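[#protein-structures] MJ: dropping Catechol 2,3-dioxygenase-like lactoylglutathione lyase family enzyme here for a structure pass
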Amino acid sequence: MRLSYTRLLVNDYEACFRFYADILKLPVLWGDENSRYAEFDVHSQTRLAINQREVMAEALETDTADPELPNQDRLAIIFEVDDVDEAAARLVSDGARQVMEPRDWTAWGIRASHFRDPDGYLLEINSPLIPVPDQT
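AK: finished. structure tokens for Catechol 2,3-dioxygenase-like lactoylglutathione lyase family enzyme:
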């Protein structure tokens, strides 16, 4: 596994985008003020991303009242792996608490699975989806 992103799950996406882009002057690699997701170059192999909190809550189906998550997630740590299914199976067999089984997130361009650490922090393992070449 390689740490590829720290993703902040923010309430005020537009203000956070302007803060990281305009005040910290981090180069924007993906997204804009209205996209609800953006990635910033922090001059390392690990990127900083911001995501509107509701988007992640809806994707993981945690947008309902959950006594274990009274305030919803604020942070996600993202690890890139070569094979999401293999890594997820290993994590589960080693005792990790899986939130979402591996699936393709075509809008995000990744295959991913989600877990929680013992303190409840959200972890994502993913790998890029590679388009299948046109067979025609």
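MJ: nice. The longest strand covers residues 2-10.
AK: one more thing. The chain has three helices and eight strands.
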